[in-house]
Sequence to fold (1146 residues):
Amino acid sequence: MILLQHIALASPSPTPASVPGANIFTSPLLMSLTIWLPVAVSLFVAAMPNPRGRYDQLMKQIAFFTNLGLVFVLFVAYNQFQAFLPTMQYEEKVPWLQAIGVTYHLGVDGPGMVMLMLSGLVGIASVLASLGIRERVRSYVCLLLLVQASVNGAIVARDMFVLILFWSATAVPLALLILGWGGPRRGSATWRLLGYWGLGTAALVVGTMALYAATGGSSFDMDVLLKASLTPRIQLAVGLVMIVAGATRLPLFPLHGWVRDVLSEAPPGVAVVVAGATTRLGAFLLLRTLIGALPAAAHLLSPLLAALAALTVIYAGLAAIRTVDVRHAGAYLAMIPGGVTVLGLAALSPLGIAGSVLSLFAGGVAAALVVGACATLAERAQSRSLLVLGGLAPRMPSLSWLLIIASLAVLGVPILATFPAELMTFFGAFKNQPIGAFAVAVGLALAAVAFALLLRRVLFGAPNPDAPGVSDASLGESWYLGLLAGALIWVGVFPGGPKIPGTDTPVFDPGLVNVMAAGISDMASPYVGPTPPAGQ
Amino acid sequence: MAPLAGFVLALSSVRTRRSSANLAMFASVVMLLTTVLVGWGLAKKSTPFQASYQYINLPVAFSGPANFQGFGIDIVLRADHLNVAALIVIELCAIAAIGWHQVMGRSEPGAARFYALVSGLLFAFAGVLVSWDLAELFTFWGMGGAVTYLLLAHRWGSDEAARRARVALALPFITDLSLLCGIAWLYARYGTNSLDALVPILHTNPGWTIRSLVVAAVLLTIGVGGRLALWPLQSWITRTATTAPPAASAMAQATWSVVGIVVLLRLMPVVFASNAQTLKVLVYGFAISAVVAGLLAVIAGEPRRAVALLGSSISAVGGAVVIHGYQSSTYTFAIAGVACMLAAAPARAAMFLAVSTISSAMRTDELSEMGDAWGRMRTSSVTLAGSGLVLALSALGALAFAVTTRSYLGVALGEAVLLVAVGAVRVFMGTSTGALRRRRAFEPDRVREASSGALGWPYLLVVAGAGLLVASLIRGWLDFIDIHKHSSPAVSTFLLWLAVALVGIAAAGFAFARNKDGALRASALAGSWLEARAADSAAVAERFAVGPATDLTRRIDVWLAAGEGAIGRFADAAGRLATAGSRAPAVPVIIVLTVVLALVVALLAPGVLR
Fold:
């Protein structure tokens, strides 16, 4: 009965029939499906009988096909998504806690759709990366699905209360996954994750409550909270706490204390999810709340954002140069795309914001790839020490190529998705934040040095005779890393989607930059294109 | 598309050495024939062929200046005489390198990878040359950079190669970033990436400033200079000269010099729009680079490193001529710098391949340990002599057309040409004359000429280079590639510059003929002194810059951990206190707290403290 009522109240999608394949699949519950399907499957797996681990493989298969189905649904939704439309699509709105103005309000615009695609892709990669898990498979699969559900929830939430719930919910299954299946220092990693993310959640709660109070305390809906005209002082206060919330999650220097331990101690499947999807929520939050809703604060705080971006990239480059642990190096280098994303936000120009949205996807995939490649390499080489590893390229060619692609992706080399993202970010940033843009470029140069050292120490050179035996990536590992690399190449080659020759009609994919454009103009409306100063 | 198809096929299906080599050669030859066909079609036309396709077209704003409301990257393909000539030179270098590597690189690992990357490199270079959109240009430029790194780091199993290849990723990436920053800087001010749209508005767009154009000019020039391997940005080719596969190194050096100079010429309107001081600084920067690279080549102990430095010096001369061409009121002779590079590129590739053949046969990279190639490896030695001669004379036309001998620039560039001539003869005499001494595990009598299949390719390049050298002296060639009319300098000017090169050749020849060991010892002494200074500088940089910078991150980590520890201890203490508080009797605690608060309030109340 409740379900029927929910269906009746939910608004149907405004998806048009502008692309081939439109209206093949429509559902007013599409966004709910992305959240609750993994939860339902997780509950089903939790309740499944599994005598002596007989169905461990089946559970992994269930998780994989759940993710595959979810990505299929998302791909259909992506293809039906109306590009360049400045409004929310696939909206669902059901009153929930009416006394305090909470609604179960979901929906996506372009950046949200891009994030959902990222989450779906990383979800599949994480399950494939987890095929090697042998202990307590049921719990692992359940928790992994819950992580994905909470990430999807945080992406599609259009009510700040709902956002806070999903945002904070992400930390719990992740902490349990690291604590249960992590490396030798998993305890420290878990507590750091909970500490930093707890701080971020507290900051988000404070910021939300400030907005709630400032708008009359009637509703938590983003349409109310984020579209109210607030005084600059309130905007500044809320903006600062939102930066703290976003910086703990992304992470940005100096609130990055958890990243090294978590990404190096978590099992590869979990590290991929953390680096690829959950961390991008930090930048997504900044985009939604600071850039999209608090224009005065954004103007005041944009130099701070640019400084944080530059410090993050420079710090990550230097730390990766110094480290002698391949997983630590991967963890540090995974911070770099986040810095580039924030530089685009700090630019406060429509192009910079568009670049940062593309960077959300491309940077997420690149970060997942570099962390996953380093984690898998460390597992396959049976050592994490850069002092021990060496000359692995001839012995693990697949993994070597994937690590090289990951390196080039983080640096933003052409034909990879990070390149157009970086290009748009830099093009957008050089007007308003030239010093920040130069500093990020310096950081990228340091990252290139770090990659040169990493590749030389790990892949190239003579093999170390004292090192343990190595083997190339298994099929599952090749597939999950190949999937991420393939996505980077696909979007890098076809950012606007492949078209039928001579027409503007997409072959089957409207193109990521076209999809992400929906909603950007709305968010960027307070920031007009850079107007040159008066002539000399 | 031919090299792209070759690249994809080689990556996806071809595995054996022979088939991958044949595929790469086939793709290159098809590309060459197609380019010749395009050149034939364009030969009689003065307007370039241009076609454009949309890559990204994104509306990003609905208000503000119109040129910032949308962002687009168009794949603009523009073929003109210069592009076609440059592409043909690049293809010739690639074909010769592939042919040479098929024979001499049989023991190299990863054949399919190597040949696939060569096809990829050709595709990227074709893309750069036909690009008329700056973002598109950078896309192909970056692609070429990535492929070049992979080619230079090709010997995965060699520790020395891996160590030296680090610089091939890091240094050019930094200069490529400079190019990206320059392009982004321009876009942020003009809102367009198209050169056609950008150049006319450089001084008319609202808000243009000289300062912004100066910044753009410097960034763009550094970006191009890195790939031209100008001193002090040359170490990515000099450090990898002996550790990368010779074909890869030769190709990287020769082809990037052509691509770099064409792009420099294309970007010159932006550089020219900055101001006279900037142009002057850049010209003298290039001239200093030419002289220093020439000097380093004269004292280099490794012949392949010396060849790389000679090429770097000639690149700097060509670059200086291009910029100087724009310095004067009518910049008709900038193209002479490009013509110089078109002639030098095949010569430096040929010289590198020939000297690699000799090095390989004599099993040493030290010039002082080589000798008698003229007797034992006549063809390679002749190729080396020919290529050295072409390289030494390649700047002749550029200097005669564009630079007056009675200027500081003329003196500096003349000195560079003299040094290049000395360096080229030094490499030839060092390898080809004198006795080849017996060393440990090396028997000189076993040294013999390389297989005949490898000898023809460098020779072909020498012939091509000589042809282009002669062409660079002819006004009609400049008219053809520039589609502008030029006037010829006096014959005496040619003779004067020729004399400079001949003096260098004669001086080096005389010195080596008299006392080869003495000449090599003198240069080795200077080289070792310089290496010691370089090592000192590196140690100082490591101690005062790199070390503290990387140590900073360790300190930050320690500081963060300490901070977290302090927070943890505070939380723990607070928890213990709360636990203890919950166990304490409530009424006495409240009474104590009330008394304490009363005391505090009483003490702080007005009047008490006074």
